[in-house]
Structure formats: structure tokens, C-alpha cells
From TrEMBL:
CDD domains: HTH_XRE. This is DNA-binding helix-turn-helix protein. Keywords: DNA-binding. Residues 18-72 form the HTH cro/C1-type domain. GO terms for molecular function: DNA binding. It comes from Lentilactobacillus kisonensis DSM 19906 = JCM 15041. SMART domains: HTH_XRE (SM00530). The keyword Amino-acid biosynthesis does not apply.
Length: 84
């Protein structure tokens, strides 16, 4: 079989403010990683926007900082959106 076809969600992105919340809390990447049960590398790639967390992990991070999930994570549609 050939390469999978691109679907309309490929350009969509989950934006996040993990870095901002972590720095304001004077927390290292390892400290946050340990607190939410993932590797330091996971936090690193999430902060750089190269990894979108699972919903479960997103809630764990929001709960750790005691804020609504939407304060840290947002959704942005790709270029194929119709502007609505």
C-alpha cells in the first residue's frame, strides 16, 4: 500500500501555554514531568509545539496548575478552514 492520504485534520494544531505556566511556577521540565507522570522529553516536545498531548495528559497538566484546561490548551484549525 502507498502512503496514507492527508486528512483535513493534519494541519490542525493544539496550542499550549505549558512553558509559560511551568516557568511562572518556578518548575523544571523534569519537575512537571514527574508530577504528571511523563518523561522530561515529553514536556520538552510539547512546549516546542511538536507534540499534542492526549486529553488525559492535558487534564493532568491543567489539574496540576489548578486551572481550566482551556487556560493552557487551545485548538487552531489549519489553513483549510472556512473562516467560521
Amino acid at each position: 500500500m502507498g502512503q496514507m492520504s492527508k486528512n483535513k485534520f493534519d494541519d490542525d494544531q493544539i496550542s499550549n501555554k505549558v512553558y509559560e505556566f511551568r516557568v511562572l511556577s518556578h518548575l523544571s521540565q523534569k519537575g512537571l514531568a514527574d508530577a504528571v507522570g511523563v518523561s522530561k522529553q515529553t514536556i520538552l516536545v510539547m512546549e516546542k509545539g511538536h507534540y499534542s498531548p492526549s486529553l488525559k495528559l492535558a487534564f493532568r497538566i491543567a489539574n496540576y496548575f489548578n486551572v481550566p484546561i482551556t487556560d493552557i490548551f487551545g485548538y487552531k484549525e489549519g489553513d483549510d478552514s472556512d473562516g467560521h
